[in-house]
Every structure is written in C-alpha cells, then in structure tokens.
Predict the structure.
Amino acid sequence: MQTLSKKSIIYYSLIAMPLAIVGLPLYIYLPTYYATVVGINVATVGLILFLARLSDVITDPFFGYLSDKSLELFNSRKPIMIIGSFILIYSFYSLINPNYSYAQIYLLTYSVLIYIGWSMINIPYLTWSAEISKEYEDKTVLNSSRELFTILGVLIALVIPYIYNVSQDPQKTLEILFYLFLIIFIPFFIISLKKIKITASSSNTKFNLKSLIIVYKDIPQLKFLQIGYLLNNLANALPATLFLLFIELVIKEKDSSGLILIMYFFSGIVALVFWNKLSNKIGKKKAWLSSIILACTAFSFVPFLGENDLNAFILISLISGLSLGADMALPTAIQGDLVQKSKNLHTNISGLLFGIWTMITKLSLALAVAVSFMILGIFDFDAKNASELSLFVLMLLYGVLPVCLKIIAIFFINKYEDIKQ
C-alpha cells in the first residue's frame, strides 16, 4: 500500500528534471555536434565517447561505495551529491565550449568529468528510492515519478531551442540548454536536499569483495536482472544515438526531428500511469516484459522505411514511445526491491549496488556509441555523401539490431522472479 505523501514524492523527483537536460545533449546531440561542427572524425568520436563511458566501469561502483561511506560518516549521502554538483556544472560548460585546437582532448577530459559529476549526484539519488520507503508500491511510485520528471526535463530541453529559434544551430542549442540546466538545477537541487531526510536504519558494511559476492550468491536473480537490463538498454541506446542520422539520411525529414522527439517523449508520459497501474496488478517484471514486446513489435517495421515514409516513422515512434516509461521506471524499481532484500542479509551496500546499476546504464550507452559509430566508420560512412551500403548498415544498426537485443534481454529478464514485499 502506498504510504508516501504527494509532497515527498515531488521533493524526491525534482532533481530528475535538470539531470535530464544534461542527458539530452550528451546522448543525442553531443556525438553529432563533435562529428559535424567541431570536425572530429566520426569513428574517433565514437572511440573517445566509448573510452569516457568505459571509465564509469571503475568510477560508478567507487562512487557507490563513497555514497555508502558518506552515509556511515555523516548519516547522509548529501555531501557527495554537493561535490558532484560543482563538477557537473563546470564540466558541462567546458564540454560545450571546446578549444577547437584541442577538441579531442576536451571531448575526452570533460566527458569523463561530467560522468563523474553525474555519478556523484545520481547514484545517491537513485539509492534514495530504496531508502525513503520499504513498501513495494512506494518504490514503483517513486521511480515512476522520477522518470516522469525526467521525461518532462527532456521535453523542455527539446522545445526550448525551437522557442528561441536556435534549433538549427548546434552551438547555440547546447549553450541555451546549459543555461536552462543552471536555472532549473540550482533551486531544485537545494529544495530536494533540504526536504528529503533519510537516516541510516542499519550499519553499513565496509566494502570488500566478499560482501559483494555474498549478495550475488544469496540473490542470484540480481545478475539475470542486470544482464537483461544491459541488453535492453543497449537496444534503446542504439536508436537514440543514430536518430538524427537516420531521420536525415533515410527518412530525409531532418526538419521534423525535433517534433518527432517531442511526440516520442510525450507518448512516454501518457503511458507512464498505465505501466504503473499494470505493474501493481500483474507485477513489475511482467509489465516491463510487456513494454519490451510492444517496442519490438513497433520496431520490426523499421527496415521497411525509406524516403517519404515520415508518417509511418512517426507512428512507430509513438508506439515505441509508449514503452519508454516502463523502460525508465520499472527496472530501477525492481533493482530497489533487490537492494532492499540485500539489507536483510545484513550486508548494507545499497550505494555500491546502485553504483553498479548506473555503471551498467552508462556501459550500454558507451557500447551503443562505439558499436554504431565504429561500424559506420568501417563502411566509410559519410553523412554528406552516404553510399547505399552505408545507409543499409545504418538501417540495420537503427532498426534490426535493437530488436534482436531486446529478444535476448527477454530471456534473461524472464529468469528473474518478481519480489512482492
């Protein structure tokens, strides 16, 4: 039964909105910006961003551990979040204002730093969802509300460049998104830190390899959930990375990209309440699997698209967008259930487990950029003069590979048994 007040839910969710504004240029605009405007070779952009993302394999679990250590020392995870906020702001500004003479160094250095800042905020933030309440339904509500604010943040970031008529200028678009982020982040971050009060309910286990082994041994479902989450996230990240190229070169409707993205994310908002109610009725796992099957069904028609198929592409985007809310909220809510279960083992390494979770998220995004851009580079992809073969490869990466990955993900997710607490 839900026990949280609406105010508590909103206070928790506020931070998600500005973090989403950071995420949009990083995941969608930044690779294309550095490849087209700054002038770095497309394969090099893919390799640099992959290396930056790969750094999270080390840093995310480490900052998860620091989050637990902060709770142990200060009875709060907030100190590490405050430090992360300064790193995030500084690196975001530097990343979108590169020195063109050292563009590759800027891209690598500040990509690593912005991921560090993000981790120092996001890992404790995600961990809160498993600590604010122990109730099964509450964790679903918290995660759903957080992802609702995330999608709202994405929509704001998409609309603002059109309002200010800078959508066709990548540099000005990134600049306005940075200032938008500052305006929203600073007050929302302060409000959430002030209003969310969590005290340690049990002593935190000092991290050692044995603690982690105990959790994975006693909760074997955890590894199946994480493998399925990695594959499904990779399937989602590939189209996100290649969206702008696909709509420009295959659909040939570049000017419609912003509108389609807005419709896609709005579709996710509309469906979020449905997935929330469905998960309470049939369980989080079954609801999540249902959303994955829906996305696979919609994307199976992508290979048949071509020039002048804008309406069909919009329909596919709307249907697949319905799955967005479930993909964003339910897996992390399930992770919260398993983290709560791990505490019953007297092995409270919640921050570390969520550090591994965010590591998986970022690793999937890194693999998406590396796989897509490097494969396109192998086939001599040139956005200004694309060959039929390179366009065929683009279509396979955008529409076929994600479906295959989701089908494999279903196999692993199905091994997880829903926990009803």
User: Anything to note?
Assistant: Residues 38 and 101 are 10 Å apart (CA to CA). The domain at 6-413 is CATH 1.20.1250.20 (Growth Hormone; Chain: A;). The chain has one domain: 6-413. The longest helix spans residues 103-131.
